[in-house]
């Protein structure tokens, strides 16, 4: 584009456009962020995740949850990956994470390969966003483009992890409010909850539901009670989705319609309330669910990322540089 060099209006325009460009590069994520600096970023994540999920299908679920618990606390900044030290309290020992969130070694394995290919370039926060997407897809779920360019935090917040993450005893109103605080509609919250179509959970999380609640299928409750008694067996695992715990499908919603949600919070989505219709729709139409889930995951990945010169690219995901 040729511009008359003397025209100050044109120069002002060019300047304005240039700052707009700079601003958008610094302020948001982009699909091609590592195109020049680490072209194999997606291949590296995919290959480690493929091996990990082949070895243990549950790992796809565990990494997905790790990403959720990262993004809801200070944004998607890999804060959850920082280890506690004698002088630093991170998020790993917060109530919702301790003895529960897993998969940290898989992120380490991806990071090691990443450093070997393109050192000090790809953030742990971006690795987590890609790995969560691949975990879902490798278990039969949808795929989506993951905008990149997140940077890693130098801080973490145990108190925010305790405050911002929903618990299995949450009411529908609490779920709507916790997700609403992060900018999600009740519809998006319902789609994201479909993540519970994969993965496992400990007896202590759902014991009170299978012994005390009325809106549960009685043969389902009896089945779960066999490995989750009134006392003991706190850490014994059960699949969250009774039908297909290693397949990312819409069976979670079918379960809810049959009063086979394992967490109190899950069954809250189908208990005579405002989201019953949506649960029914997803139970009838897996494609609509898959599409809504993918869209909501991209939105979750956009929660307050550090970009530009904020934060850092950690060399080890477990500690700040
Ligand atoms: C709606 C509110 C939610 C509540 C109350 C909730 C709660 C829980 C609880 C209590 C567990 C089991 C923890 C344990 O047994 O140690 C769990 C597991 C899991 N959650 Fe959620 N969660 C919610 C939303 C989500 C979202 C939005 C995602 C991801 C998008 C997600 C992904 C998972 C996965 C994949 C597992 C299984 C993890 C594994 O097998 O390692 N959850 N969730
Ligand atoms: C990355 O690699 C270069 C070249 O091998 C090396 O000089 C540099 O110290 C490395 N950077 C880090 C942070 O490891
Ligand atoms: C509970 O689930 C079982 C097994 O799927 C089914 O046969 C039964 O009809 C259900 N019970 C009720 C009360 O819906």
TrEMBL record:
One GO biological process from the UniProt record? hydrogen peroxide catabolic process
A Pfam family for this UniProt protein? peroxidase
The record's annotation in CDD domains points to: secretory_peroxidase (cd00693)
The subcellular location is:
Secreted
* Catalytic-site annotation from UniProt: 69 (proton acceptor)
Annotated site residue numbers, Transition state stabilizer: 65
Q: Please tell me where substrate binds in this chain.
A: 166
EC class name: oxidoreductase
Which InterPro entries does the record cross-reference, listed alphabetically? Haem_peroxidase (IPR002016), Haem_peroxidase_sf (IPR010255), Peroxidase_pln (IPR000823), Peroxidases_AS (IPR019794), Peroxidases_heam-ligand_BS (IPR019793), Secretory_peroxidase (IPR033905)
Cite the binding residues for Ca(2+) 2.
197, 241, 249
GO: which molecular function terms? Answer: heme binding; lactoperoxidase activity; metal ion binding
Instruction: Give the signal sequence positions.
Output: 1-27
**Known role:** Removal of H(2)O(2), oxidation of toxic reductants, biosynthesis and degradation of lignin, suberization, auxin catabolism, response to environmental stresses such as wounding, pathogen attack and oxidative stress.
Q: Which UniProt keywords apply?
A: Calcium, Disulfide bond, Glycoprotein, Heme, Hydrogen peroxide, Iron, Metal-binding, Oxidoreductase, Peroxidase, Pyrrolidone carboxylic acid, Secreted, Signal
Its main localization is secreted
Reaction catalysis annotation? 2 a phenolic donor + H2O2 = 2 a phenolic radical donor + 2 H2O
Q: Per UniProt, where does Ca(2+) 1 bind?
A: 70, 73, 75, 77, 79, 91
Which pairs of Cys residues are joined through disulfide bonds in the record? 38-118, 71-76, 124-317, 203-228
Name recorded for this polypeptide: Peroxidase
Cofactor(s) demanded: Ca(2+); heme b
User: Which organism is this entry from?
Assistant: Carex littledalei
Question: What is a single cellular component term in the Gene Ontology annotation?
Answer: extracellular region
